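COURSE: Structural Biology Practicum
ASSIGNMENT: Worksheet 4, Part C
STUDENT ID: 0417
INSTRUCTIONS: Below are two proteins. For each, the amino acid sequence is given first, followed by its structure token string. Answer the questions at the end about the second protein only.

PROTEIN I
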Amino acid sequence: MQLTLKNKTILLGVTGSISAYKACDLARLFVKAGACVHVVMTPSAERFVSALTFEALTRNAVLTEASESWSSTLNHIDIGKMCDVFVLAPATANTINKIANGFADNILLQTVLAYTKPLLIAPSANTHMIEDATTLKALNYLEKHHIEIIGSQSKLLACGDVGNGALAEPLEIFYATARALLNDDFWNNREVIVTGGGTREKIDEVRYVSNFSSGKMANSLATALYLKGADVTLITTKGHAEIPSKICTIDIASAKEMKEKVVKSITNALESETLVPNKTRLKPSFPNHKQETSKKPFLFMAAAVADFTPKSPKQGKTKKINIGSKWNIEMKQTDDILKSISELSLIKVGFKAEMDKVNGFSNAKSLIENKNVDGVCYNLLADSSAFGTLDNSIVFITKDETVELGRASKLELSFKILKESQKLEHNNTI
């Protein structure tokens, strides 16, 4: 799932942890996404990875104690001014405790103290060091002052101990950093539900009726929403290993389960539709001002929900010898989820895949009136091979407007869908 961070500038801070080598993978992810990456290293970090390694990866000079220059921007004041976000990965317990107490006795800490924009910290240390009361107090203090902590993992550590303290996976740090860069006030802290995949309707305990929906569009939408700052719940029948782990996922199978989880998630979202703070990174010594706004929940119904389900699913495995040469399975209609929630006070975006070139568009637009949705993502398919592809083609339809979003990767299309969907809140309140 390729994400672009073009025109973004990232400052990567590396401290003296054995996991410093993973910062190389992180830098590579940032560069691959199109970001400009600068690196600052503590003297201890240089014992594990050389500055030359990061210069080769980023094509930028690395700020160290020895390289700092006041005749250029390679110093602890100017380098921060150039960057949109500062991520420390890995951050040792020593560094964490010093930041919380305002220490500035090395080049990286001086850079942190002078930095005023979003700061993220990914801890990495021995279990006893990271769970020491002093370190936990420091982490709690930093979080209270809107410095994001990217939680460490529990696993076999380099020292041989098993427990909490391993650096978060580089991809998770990448996603957290991208979220800080792409955060949008409209979506920030907004409750959003996304459904995906094709439901599976049981015939017996080993067979089911389904469709070709891959769930990839829903995964991309959930990822885009997360990166924009939304509180996302993904209800899906398909795998989702490639999306950020911070996204709340609910795995289901049938249309009945889909309806139950959708209704429950919407109910929870509507109950929590309260005043929420706009978070900004403030220096610890500043007063904690919060601007509060009320935000209406969204539903993106991208799942391909079965129209019919077997009326009487069989227990166990149905034997061929007991069926005969033909198997007539009686089906019954499933509940229409969008119709069942049509009166609920949230903004709803439906998805409509059609193969009818003549009537497909009108069928898609009819969802606005027939199911009381605010917008429709219409996709004209050629045949079943169109499912599961990496790209897609979407027309975004509202009551008064039709916007061709074109063909693009599903993640790129997702960002376009979100941009168009923002207009729906205004239309919904008219």
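PROTEIN II
(use this one for the questions)
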Amino acid sequence: MVVSLNHNVNQTLEELPNAYQTALAQYDRAVRHMELDDNVVEYMRWPRREFTVNFPVRRDNGHVEMFTGYRVHHSTVLGPSKGGIRYSTNVTLDEVRALAMWMTWKCSLVNLPYGGAKGGVLVDPKSLSMREREGLTRRYASELIPLISPYSDIPAPDMGTGPQEMAWIMDTYSMTVGYSVPAIVTGKPTNIGGSQGRVEATGRGVVICMVEALKRKGWTTPGNISVVIQGFGNVGTYAAAYAHDLGYKIVGVSDIDGGIYNANGLNIPTVRKWVGEHRTVVGYPDAEPVTNSELLTLPCDVLIPAAMEGQITENNAPHIKAKMVVEGANGPTTTEADDILHERGILVVPDILANAGGVTVSYFEWVQGLQEFFWDVEEVYRQLERILIRAYDGTATMTEKHNVDMRTAAQMTAIQRVGDALVTRGFYP
């Protein structure tokens, strides 16, 4: 018996801002400040290829359920496409298109030899047993075999996936080709070729960019700076942990179930222990409960949206109390909200810069895998900080030169590199 239940989970998507419209609006805004050939501008608006698959997974009760998955390659101009795979009830083709486009600009901005890709499966990962999760991952991976390889498209973890899913994808690909191919994915466990420092890389990179932004404002005393983090998954957890280790005061965090707030600062190690035991921050005893929407407007110096796209909109942007927004998620701020925050003098450190730590260390992992020569974690952290600070400096310079906001400056820098490479390569045939 075949049942198709997962298609009903998208019923609330109309409530979310369309991520692809946001990505295109940001692109259009950036290219208006640039002197690019119209043909190049039009070419870069479009994804190179889009792949949709419908595939069966046998549930533990014996029923076969159909699932829908996507993989989008936005660009391969600078190199093989690179991007994560997410499992979420909010996955749509438009969302994956947007995330792939943002990956192109992100890789270009930090000077990685990649184009952008993204993938996703429409599923609630919490509804899957471990056996079902493995079955879904392996079947989805098998559907992607025509697209992926260490030299064409290299997947990685994203929301709802992690090292274990990457291990299953690596094994599925390796069994298909007949030999072990560790470089087919990044973000896999270290005992099968993963890189030291990869799991915490995105969150750590967010904090590296936050610290750089604070230094430029002359805010150099961590204990006096309060931070709120929306999202306590992989990105938010490691951002909170690293910021806490550096002495910053984390006053609020949240996950999908709700948030917690303590004006005197949360003890992040004990919050993490609570989450490990209860699978949510909700109910943590040494804090006040807040909703996710309330969390975004809490009084703080730095707000880190690290959940998902479309969280800061024209409706709540006027009420943001933070002096700085550092984007840990992809596309958390709509273009209308960008304008409001800019008018209010709130600095936004954009996603393609602030959360580029993950793809940067993924690049390190890919290189290590191809060469079979591995680095220690200190070297990974050193190279990560070097690359992100260099990208921050370039973005800040572009901001001042063209008198634009940081997002526009970051996209201008990234788009120019892709555009220049496209002109050099030419249009085939």
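ANSWER KEY EXCERPT:
Q1: The chain has two domains: 2-11+49-189, 201-354.
Q2: The first strand starts at residue 2 and ends at 3.
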